[in-house]
Amino acid sequence: MRNDSVTAPQGFWAAGLASGVKVSGNADLGLLVCPTGATAAAMFTTNRIVSAAVQISREHIESRKVYAVVVNSGNANACTGKRGLANARQMCEATAGYLAASPREVLVASTGIIGHQLPMEKVLPGIANAIPRLGDSPKAGLAFAKAIMTTDTRLKHAYREVKLARATVKIAGTVKGAGMIGPNLATTLLFITTDVAIGKSLLQKALREAIGGSLNRFTVDGHQSTNDTAILLTSGLAGNPRLTGQSAAYQKFLGALADLCTDLVRQMALDAEGATRMFKVVIKGAASIAEATKAARAVADYPLFKCAVHGGDPNWGRIICAVGSSGVDLNPAKLSCKLDDLYVFRNGAPTDFNPKVAARIVSQREHTITVDLGVGRFGDFYYGCDLSAEYVRINADYHT
Amino acid sequence: MRNDSVTAPQGFWAAGLASGVKVSGNADLGLLVCPTGATAAAMFTTNRIVSAAVQISREHIESRKVYAVVVNSGNANACTGKRGLANARQMCEATAGYLAASPREVLVASTGIIGHQLPMEKVLPGIANAIPRLGDSPKAGLAFAKAIMTTDTRLKHAYREVKLARATVKIAGTVKGAGMIGPNLATTLLFITTDVAIGKSLLQKALREAIGGSLNRFTVDGHQSTNDTAILLTSGLAGNPRLTGQSAAYQKFLGALADLCTDLVRQMALDAEGATRMFKVVIKGAASIAEATKAARAVADYPLFKCAVHGGDPNWGRIICAVGSSGVDLNPAKLSCKLDDLYVFRNGAPTDFNPKVAARIVSQREHTITVDLGVGRFGDFYYGCDLSAEYVRINADYHT
């Protein structure tokens, strides 16, 4: 079995188990450990209300080295006041204690229901039980991936290798997220491990760039959660010459990292709550990149369009409606829209397309919508997925 | 039978019938006529892409008098290019011809699928057939209300009377709209008739004010359509002293008009596609009215929250998440949230509320969510409705 889990890069251990936080008895506690100390980068939600875990990890990411990440699912530890903060700190303290690290050298992440206190009588024994299970096997890596899931129906992980000089650098990532996914991180816990030799600030830059074109261009329901967290850890053990900012080697590493993030986003899109199809909205001819982004997001987030995709219905009028409603500058007489390569609307008027061909395009597992606003030379894109009755069922009953 | 349809105010005739635009054979063509010539006010969608009907009516509303409004449902006549514009003009010309009016004295409105040319071979005979059916009976008014419906499951109309000096002023309205409803008009065709004596510019001001606190504070799926149109016609026949801007009589009329609009919004919310419940989101303690509006809309539009309401689930974490994600200024340590009168979150921490009581509140036909942002003294509100699996079914299959 090839290891393409988070334990694939050199110098990482992982574990995952059921601590009892989830009443279902599913796995809900994960540990990711770099015994030699990892250089770490992270991005967090821009929601004004953030979980206790995000508050603590924002502090701890400043540490020079990170020895572990402790994660629980089933409870977001958000909107839990001072007690929630104390609990998040205690998770770091307990983990650090087993590893002879400082609590500030441990990151913490939580995901699940908002507004309930963490059952620490389950979490702390969970951490204790995870320690002896730590290992670098694929199984250990997948156990970690499983422990971070909530309404996800599939494990999501991706693996890339890149040759830098004579060294083989490995990058592995796992992500959870199926709903409450808006751009700027998409609601998600994302953990990436690598063994590339790189400094902390350049690692942070690489993470920001890779996410900018992947998780930050993906929406399920347009909202960021209180808990979104992306963590990138490197053991630095690959043996490559340490990366520098403008080098070709850095660009090669960044390319692989970005590709891995896009792979994870596609997995998220197709496993989004109730989703059966995904799509990419490409905007061209915009007056600025910001306007292109805004228009692309307006289409990707528009419930009526998402329903039409679910029905395999080439209802392009809803695309035009969403673009027009988004407030961006456009030229009605030049506005055009394609489904994959099929023009359905050109220079402000419908084309004489074959509806069966259009329906076939929209019914694919993935398709691309291209809209030309006809006013400028800028573009951007967004990934999205369909909206199904199943999404409603999942989210009407999540609470209790 | 009391007449509370659009023919109730003095001086209006109406008709509605099936012209064949809808393949279902349901009514799809309506005429509203003021034989003595009405003073008219209107508001239109702010979508950058507007239907041919909106383009024509925006010109025609400048006329001093309006003799008729011709409406079709089943086809939006939007994104239909020059031919669509010619067809909308032709609808006005045909109607004007039967009434010895100028085409510029006729308004036109369309609603339905986007991007298909109007079948004029059905629309024109439909107008001809509607003329002899015009009448001022309740039945004629309701036939008009029926002809403007698309996915609406119920006729929506409201009626108010107001005494001004010795005159009884009547106001009646009918609205269609069940999906593609975002604020700034909500997607809708709204027709209000009255017999108040008032000048054109003050009538326009009254319409703007009445809609500002009703249709512009209501969202189903956050998008304006290409066709949103609100038309207010007065025959001026009530016999009241002509209203002036700052008078108590104007305020009394405006109060009744605004109340009628709010009544129609409630009917729309409870008949929104697949909706089973409605709610009002009230924001307090905001740094500005604009921020309060933004936060209220963020909650009302948030799919996860709408799903929770559908499930009767007091998942207040999603309310806090939406507010935090909206980008408005807030104080996490003072943030509070109530469901009706029950505090579920106070000063940044969950309260010890009874979940059964909370579930009972959320399971009502209507409830109010109040969020205090804790930073200022401004507030605003938004109406919304739940998101159901039925909404998806309706909108996945609308096209063909």
Task: Describe the overall structure.
2 copies of one chain form a homodimer. Chain A has 400 residues and is an alpha+beta fold. The first copy, chain A, folds into 2 domains: 13-270, L-amino peptidase D-ALA esterase/amidase (4-Layer Sandwich), CATH 3.60.70; 278-396, Ubiquitin-like (UB roll), CATH 3.10.20.340. The first copy, chain A, is built from 11 helices and 14 strands. The first copy, chain A, has helices at 52-60, 81-99, 120-130, 138-147, 200-212, 248-270, 289-300, 303-310, 316-325, 355-362, 389-396; strands at 13-17, 29-44, 66-75, 106-113, 157-164, 167-176, 189-194, 229-234, 278-286, 336-339, 342-346, 349-350, 366-372, 378-385. In chain A, helix 2 (81-99) links the parallel strand 3 and strand 4. In chain A, helix 1 (52-60) crosses helix 2 and helix 2 packs parallel to helix 3.
Question: What structural class should be given to the helix and strand makeup of chain A?
Answer: alpha+beta
Strand content range of chain A: 25-35%
Number of strands of chain A: 14
The major beta sheet of chain A can be summarized as:
8 strands, mixed
Instruction: Please indicate the count of domains of chain A.
Output: 2
Mean pLDDT of chain A: 92
* Assembly state of the chains shown: homodimer
- CATH homologous superfamily designation of the largest domain in chain A: L-amino peptidase D-ALA esterase/amidase
| Helicity level of chain A | 25-40%
CATH topology of the largest domain in chain A: L-amino peptidase D-ALA esterase/amidase
Biggest interface, residues from each chain: A-B, 69 and 69 residues
In one word, what is the shape of chain A?
globular
Radius of gyration of chain A, in angstroms, nearest whole number: 22 Å
CATH class of the largest domain in chain A: Alpha Beta
The number of distinct helices of chain A, counting runs of at least 4 residues, comes to: 11
